[in-house]
User: What shape does this take?
Amino acid sequence: MDQPISFRIAANEGNARAGVLRTRRGEIETPVFMPVGTAGSVKGIRFEELENEIDAQIILGNTYHLWLRPGIETIRACGGLHRFIGWDRALLTDSGGFQVWSLGELRKISEEGTEFRSHVDGSLRFLSPEVSMEVQAALGSDIVMAFDECAPGKTPHDDARTSMELTARWARRSRDRFDALQRDEADTGRTLVEGLSGAQALFGIVQGATHHDLRRESLDRKLEIGFDGYAIGGLSVGEEKNVMWDVAGEIAPLMPADLPRYLMGVGTPEDLLEGVARGVDMFDCVLPTRNGRNGQAFTSRGKLNIKNTQWASDQRPLDETCRCSVCRRHSRAYLRHLYLSGEMLSSISLTHHNLAFFLDTMRRVRQSIRSGKFTQFRREFTEMVNSGVE
Ligand SMILES: [Zn+2]
Assistant: This one.
């Protein structure tokens, strides 16, 4: 029987892999960085730019935000998320678990699911594996994430075990409800493509905080259920970087070699390379968009804070090696002026450059793996990024 996605590895170097992930909405070259489109928009950039110049092959949508506003009735009435937002390429939606977890004291977790107050209108809402699958079917995203509970980095072993076991039971319930919804044709994104089933793909999430035994057990329990791809969740939430890489470095290579591996919510450009070196294929993070709005540019020589006085009359682009349309046209001096004047073009320009830089870095990563030069590329890139902007 045809699968919802196919994944082919074209080249390996150590644990790093370059491949092609085929979805019902096009091919995605991996390793890939996925821009985050929280509420159905990647903040500060139009879809034409994402498609043409940035050439994003897949973006993320947030189940939690879209469920609360505009709500699934509206999105279903508009033909699903792709049609609603005007994006024909691949979409991945998260499960809402992480957003609800981030509400902290405002939520109550039980075996059944999570109760919380909506940040939009204060109403009491309930999110469970079943509800999350129903919302993601209505959105019609091409890759669906199982509903999980996030145990952050510093969670003690006992609590992390309880949470990991809950996540395993929720994964089973996610799988069951997801399969029923596919049979009932609730998925608004279904489309026929040669060689694929046309259904949504479902990824399982490995939790277990920083405890390696729990992480391995969490992976085993997801493998027993069976998913189309596997993700590492609950990292980059308070633990030290080296601890995060120890966990990812052990778990990613244990995941099935012939399926995509996704490290959720990570990270800086240097982090992407570290993840790739450990065998990760997919990444997402709000850093390029959020920091762009806060006046911070990511460059080949590290972070550049556009508000600094030293750029007041600097005629050079944000990054002298970047070929994006912002760097081809505008100077640091002008971008600094825009930021200090509170012009929205400041956020738009820095977001554009940051996304261009992240996606271009991943293009170079893929090329370097395919030509057997990833180790060299990683060393040179890391040295350069740490050298500092002048
Ligand atoms: Zn640029």
